[in-house]
Amino acid sequence: MPTIIAAAAVLVIALLPVAAPWLQFVLTLAIAKGFAALGVAVLLRAGLISIGHAMFFAASAYAVAFLARAGVNDLGLLLILSVLGGALVGAVAGSFLVRYRAIFFAMLNLAVSMVFYALCAKLYGVTGGTDGKPVPVPAVFGVVLGEPAFKSVLFYLSLGLMVLVGLAVQRYLNSPLGHALSAVHTNEIRLEYLGIPVWAVLLIAYVVSAALAGLGGAIAGFAIGRVVPDFAFWTASGHLVLIAVLGGIGGVPGAFIGALFLELLHSAAVTVTDSWNLIVGMALIIVIMFMPKGIYGLFARKEATGL
Amino acid sequence: MTHPILEARSLHVSFNGVKAADDVSIAIHDGEFLAIIGPNGSGKTTLLNICTGYIRPRSGNVLLDGHDITRLSPRAIARRGVARAFQIPQLFSAQRVIDNMMLALAGTDGLWSAVQPLETARRRDEARALLDLVGLADDADRISSTLPEGHRKLLDIAVALALKPRLLLLDEPTSGVSALERFPLMEALMAALRQRRITALFVEHDMDVVARYASRVLVWNAGNIMAEGRPDEVFSNAQVRQRVVGVA
Ligand SMILES: Nc1ncnc2c1ncn2[C@@H]1O[C@H](COP(=O)(O)OP(=O)(O)OP(=O)(O)O)[C@@H](O)[C@H]1O
Ligand SMILES: [Mg+2]
């Protein structure tokens, strides 16, 4: 039954741009942010809040821009290499960040991402400073497309990846490593006494989460056609945490539901009123107070009461 | 006499001037079921903390099979076949009872497979068998935090057994377990230890349990061993009767 609901939801999203073409960009961006929020949600399983994941989002987007400039011109290759780039940055940052917990982890992620942001903004010669770098339209399997056609391909590719990557992450969370990750939250001492290396469990999760954020960033870069330092700004990281919490930390679909909800709400709200932040704030308060399992909890109610 | 599995040599530990281990030396031999008794705060749990690498002694050494493990981490020592059940159960309380067990089983094999689910038929059967052993078969699907305290203790012991240790350290296995369940638990535990050839050390406050099951007893007092011997020997010692048995 949940599979049918999920399949129906994906179908609806796939058809929305046919009815309202302007939605295609909004939805692509929402899915991109959903990937990054999923990365944040993976770490939330271990009780770790990262307020710096926009860094990996930006890192992969910059990687796309640099690679494209260096002559790589294939969508698939650009995606793979840039996600690997994000994962690599994640491995480097994670190897020292996973030693910290709670507020220290949150703040150090924030600090590292702010250094990254500053570098992006200041190293004009490399990053183009605050103007950023253009992300050109790449070829898709050797076919050179016009921009509108490419944006459609990008949207449907993102949607497909959402399903595939979502299932893969679901599998990871169900594996021994995923359970060990949740166990970090409840009892690190017992984990150590089981002979399980907590740092390795966390580092793997950190790299996975960075790769997810990177995938989101690469997609966003393609969708927007430019990458700017603001991709890495701390408010963007905060936004990802917001989505992860809104969507509920429980399930993989939650991150995407949260992202879609916020992006759609955003595009609806800005046309009616400029009190966007007020609306988002209210929505968050309602979710935290009345739906502690997030929006996803509404759909997963059966599981929740089955405890 | 055989080579000891675990040996502690002149351990010293103090917390803010309170001596929790004051020149402690012990040896546990293969096949023993060694009991440690002693008043509250005499340093019994501290000894287990030192032997498993959770705290470092100010001086002294711990040897496992003759190898120095004093400075190893709890993880490294666990990997060498020493498992511990805690005085206060250490569980993954947000997870199901059976998941606690399966994660312990996965810890020794198959942790790194990120594609296989934690729950495999083999792991589930093995987990259920151990839960059955400690009498928790009916609680397998419950979230661990919802278990009554006594059952949490049992789960903690089952988790330690799941590590297939050679040496098992039990910190008051029967505390919190109801008087009715106490002896059945000990019978099952002893059978499992014998069958799996596990050597064990257990801290215990229930003197009936000690008298019945221990092969040797160490009597602790203020960070040191005040008496040692077979249960009947120890319990007939007037000093022990006065200082420990009467208190406990
Ligand atoms: N980490 C610690 N920090 C400070 N003091 C400690 C610590 N661990 C133990 N102690 C102190 O060391 C002494 C021995 O404690 P320990 O827990 O080993 O006693 P115990 O024999 O296990 O007692 P009980 O029967 O109550 O479990 C106590 O005075 C205790 O307060
Ligand atoms: Mg104790």
From TrEMBL, chain A:
One of its GO terms (molecular function) is branched-chain amino acid transmembrane transporter activity. Its main location: membrane. It is a multi-pass membrane protein. GO terms for cellular component: plasma membrane. Keywords: Cell membrane, Membrane, Transmembrane, Transmembrane helix. The keyword Membrane applies. InterPro entries: ABC_transp_permease, LivM-like. This is ABC-type branched-chain amino acid transport system, permease component. It comes from Bradyrhizobium yuanmingense.
Automatic annotation (TrEMBL), chain B:
Keywords: ATP-binding, Nucleotide-binding, Transport. One of its GO terms (biological process) is L-isoleucine import across plasma membrane. GO terms for cellular component: plasma membrane. Pfam families: ABC_tran (PF00005). Residues 6-247 form the ABC transporter domain. One of its GO terms (molecular function) is ATP binding. The keyword Transport applies. This is Branched-chain amino acid transport system ATP-binding protein.
